[in-house]
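Re: that backbone. Tokens:
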């Protein structure tokens, strides 16, 4: 890193002449302006093609540095054109660790309908002009919709008297896996939101010094919580996968929106179709996408060549999948806390009242009653229930 900075600084101070020397072989032989493919479907034009002066006098545009110095001393535009076309100079950094160290800036690209721009600048514009405003708006819209739903429709209450007969819903292992994953998720969500949006809502309040320190601490917390999230996510996926497999009645549940507006819930197994959508869409697909793209940005995925474009693509995939995952998890967190009375108790203590099970997951309760599923699956559940004076079987 230090070497790279020295290299860049040396270039700046020498007006680029250091780089020009190392790239002199290429500079001495002006190449025809062949388009360079930088990404599928996108061709970067050699910058020599598009300068107004190039159309006025092609020979002028193809001058070498030396030729230009004779007619316009001090004008080193030819060298900067070569820099812009992605020509590699010399760097003492090992190619294995820094494959692009000799390339001062990424080649210029021209996206359809936009002006010629550097690829890094294009990435910055997509981040600042698309991901941040539209992503931020999406999060606020979903938050607003949840608040509106809570105010207008309200939480799903337990209908009828509690029976006092407790049924084990989650084993200690399942709860530990879930809450470990939640801890990592919340760390990542808070630090990620600060990195993306903090400068708009927090910086003006707490000022640059405090914000700088906070961003520094949370950015490091993000890097460490990422691998923890990856491991706990895999455990959650394996642990909860079986009961999230599609089952008869799921489509009916989805078509009727779970029955939320009909005033009664549609019967479901251990997890309803809404929970299954969150599991497969939010946890499995988006969760794994977030993890893989995050590991790429941490340079932890083996076998990849880590170039600037690798980071830019990984960053965009990471941002989009994160925003979508956050949206789904906002719904999950609402329904798991304020939205469904008694749901959090199940994930906190491991037990739910029989009437809660009947109201929310009737088919699951039927299976327990018929003996198809054991009501007490862990020995600790039996002991805990017995100690609390609760019946050990429904
Ligand atoms: C503050 C954050 C969270 C809270 C309060 C929360 C709460 C809950 C609650 C109460 C349940 C039980 C629902 C039921 O009994 O049917 C549950 C289930 C579950 N949660 Fe969370 N959760 C949170 C975050 C997460 C995260 C980040 C993930 C994974 C990325 C996750 C994955 C799951 C899974 C897989 C289940 C099992 C049910 C299913 O498959 O849909 N949760 N959660």
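Recovered sequence:
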């Amino acid at each position: 890193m230090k070497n790279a900075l020295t290299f860049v600084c040396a270039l700046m101070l020498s007006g680029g002449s250091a780089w020009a020397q190392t790239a002199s072989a290429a500079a001495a032989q002006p190449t025809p302006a062949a388009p360079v493919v930088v990404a599928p479907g996108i061709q970067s034009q050699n910058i020599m093609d598009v300068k107004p002066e190039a159309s006025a006098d092609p020979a002028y545009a193809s001058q070498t540095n030396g030729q230009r110095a004779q007619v316009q001393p001090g004008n080193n535009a030819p060298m900067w054109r070569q820099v812009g076309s992605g020509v590699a100079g010399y760097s003492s950094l090992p190619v294995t660790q820094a494959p692009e160290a000799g390339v001062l800036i990424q080649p210029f690209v021209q996206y359809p309908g936009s002006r010629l721009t550097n690829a890094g600048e294009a990435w910055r514009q997509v981040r600042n002009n698309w991901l941040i405003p539209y992503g931020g708006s999406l999060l606020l819209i979903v938050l607003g919709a949840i608040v509106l739903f809570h105010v207008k429709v309200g939480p799903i209450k337990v209908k009828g008297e509690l029976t006092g007969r407790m049924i084990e819903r989650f084993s200690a292992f399942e709860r530990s896996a879930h809450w470990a994953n939640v801890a990592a998720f919340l760390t990542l969500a808070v630090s990620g939101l600060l990195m993306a949006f903090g400068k708009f809502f927090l910086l003006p309040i707490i000022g640059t010094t405090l914000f700088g320190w906070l961003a520094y601490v949370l950015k490091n917390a993000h890097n460490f919580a990422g691998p923890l999230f990856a491991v706990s996510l895999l455990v959650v996926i394996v642990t909860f996968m079986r009961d999230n497999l599609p089952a008869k009645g799921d489509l009916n549940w989805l078509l009727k929106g779970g029955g939320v507006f009909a005033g009664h819930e549609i019967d479901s197994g251990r997890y309803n179709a809404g929970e299954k959508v969150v599991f497969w869409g939010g946890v499995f697909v988006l969760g794994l996408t977030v993890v893989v793209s995050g590991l790429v940005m941490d340079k932890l995925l083996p076998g990849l060549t880590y170039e600037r474009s690798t980071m830019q693509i990984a960053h965009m995939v990471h941002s989009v999948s994160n925003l979508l995952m956050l949206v789904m998890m906002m719904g999950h967190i609402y329904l798991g806390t304020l939205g469904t009375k008694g749901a959090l108790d199940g994930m906190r203590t491991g037990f739910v009242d029989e009437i809660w099970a009947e109201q929310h997951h009737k088919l699951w309760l039927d299976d327990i009653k018929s003996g198809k599923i054991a009501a007490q699956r862990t020995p600790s559940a039996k002991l805990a229930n017995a100690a609390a004076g609760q019946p050990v079987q429904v």
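DSSP finds 17 helices and six strands in the chain. The beta strands are 36-39, 42-44, 108-109, 117-118, 166-168, 351-353.
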